[in-house]
Specification:
Helices cover 75% and strands 2% of the residues. The protein has 6 helices and 2 strands, in the order E-E-H-H-H-H-H-H.
Length: 181
């Protein structure tokens, strides 16, 4: 067990559960909106030519597909940059403090949560855009893009094991970076 800045015990399982609630809420929001969209479009569920995504009749769909591709890439790149920046600031932490901490990891858990939220929010935004594109235009590729984005979000769902492994990886990277400076 580790302690917070005001010497109160911090339960790692509670921190993990918070991350799971946040990630689950982001995914659930997209799924609920998709359900509402299907209900709203039910009389005319799909466009007359649901696979025809040539401009100008599918401009929003095309923008959604481009946004989905960009956000998939950026949802991996930007969180890694955030982690690298945070790790550089943690290099100045006393080595003894780094070694005695557990899953909360001297702020590493906060870094994990921040990068997780940012990465998932980027995917969620692109998924919402594609669901809106389907709502407006009714093209199937928008639905497929939203589905892929939700699957990627689910693949990044936090568990106690993968968070603990991530924190340990970051600790070892901090130790390596200290040795090289």
């Amino acid at each position: 067990m580790s302690y917070s800045s005001d010497d109160q015990p911090v339960e790692p399982i509670g921190l993990v559960r918070t991350s799971q609630i946040i990630a689950g809420s982001l995914v659930a929001g997209v799924c609920m909106f998709l359900t509402v969209t299907f209900v709203m479009r039910s009389p005319k569920a799909f466009a007359p030519a649901p696979w025809d995504i040539m401009p100008p009749q599918a401009m929003i769909t095309l923008l959604g597909l481009v946004m989905a591709a960009m956000m998939i890439v950026l949802s991996f790149v930007i969180p890694r940059q955030i982690v690298a920046t945070s790790r550089r600031s943690l290099i100045t932490t006393k080595p003894a403090d780094l070694d005695k901490s557990d899953v909360t990891g001297n702020g590493l858990f906060g870094v994990y949560q921040t990068q997780m939220i940012i990465g998932l929010a980027m995917l969620e935004g692109a998924a919402f855009f594609n669901v809106i594109a389907f709502l407006i235009e009714g093209h199937i590729p928008s639905l497929m893009a939203a589905g892929v984005l939700v699957l990627i979000m689910l693949s990044r769902f936090p568990t106690q094991g993968n968070i603990a492994a991530w924190v340990e990886d970051q600790k070892s990277l901090i130790r390596e970076e200290r040795n090289h400076t």
